[in-house]
Design brief:
48% helix; two-stranded antiparallel sheet; two-stranded antiparallel ribbon; alpha+beta; 162 residues
């Protein structure tokens, strides 16, 4: 005859029951911290000279994080919010089609080519090829190891505190 005796089964079951709530709380804190760090990297590195130089700051100012944690998931998104029309083409690259440029507020366009100032009522733009200048995906890749290890540490810490 074989006899098996388990010690600590009730404590283990209690700990297993507490773990989902502890993990959810730990992930809520850690994903918010990581999202803030990713936004900081994008704004203060990638969009401040590392990938793109700042002109108006509109793209940099549009970068934000959203963190949603519920019983089944922790979802973090970092991206451009608002009406920055060139955000995606800078990230992924692409082509613009030929188009006419008209003055928005005045009767003439003014622009400098070389050392000469030119004026025109309209300009026929031939279109452009914009190269990929990833500021979001490259930042995520830069933080990949930190994100993975931080989330694993959060799960381990949640198990210890459950």
């Amino acid at each position: 005859m074989f006899t098996l005796e388990l010690e600590g089964l009730q404590e283990t079951n209690s700990r297993l029951d507490r773990y989902p709530a502890a993990l959810q709380a730990a992930l809520a804190v850690k994903t918010s911290q990581l999202a803030a760090a990713l936004v900081n990297l994008v704004k203060n590195n990638k969009l401040s000279g590392s990938v793109l130089n700042t002109r108006t700051g509109a793209l940099r100012d549009s970068i934000a994080a959203n963190v949603t944690v519920d019983a089944d998931s922790a979802l973090t998104s970092v991206g451009s919010e608002g009406d920055v029309k060139y955000a995606a083409i800078q990230e992924y690259g692409g082509k613009t089609s030929a188009h006419e440029i008209l003055p928005a507020k005045a009767g003439m366009l003014a622009f400098i080519v070389g050392d000469m100032r030119h004026f025109a009522r309209r300009v026929e733009h031939p279109g452009s090829v914009i190269p990929e200048r990833s500021y979001l995906r490259s930042a995520l890749e830069d933080m990949k190891e930190e994100i993975l290890s931080s989330l694993a540490d959060a799960a381990a810490d949640a198990w210890e505190s459950a």
